[in-house]
Amino acid sequence: MTAFSALKQAVDFTKVAIGLRDDVKLNEAKAVLTERLVEISHAAFELHYANNTLLQEKRAAEDLVEELRAELRKIEEFQADMTRYEPHHTRLGGFCFRDKAQGGAADPAIYLCANCMNRHKKTYLQLQDGGQSLHCSEGHGSIPGVIPPSNPKPFIEVTAPTV
Ligand SMILES: [Zn+2]
Question: Which residues form a coiled coil (predicted)?
Answer without folding.
Answer: 51-81
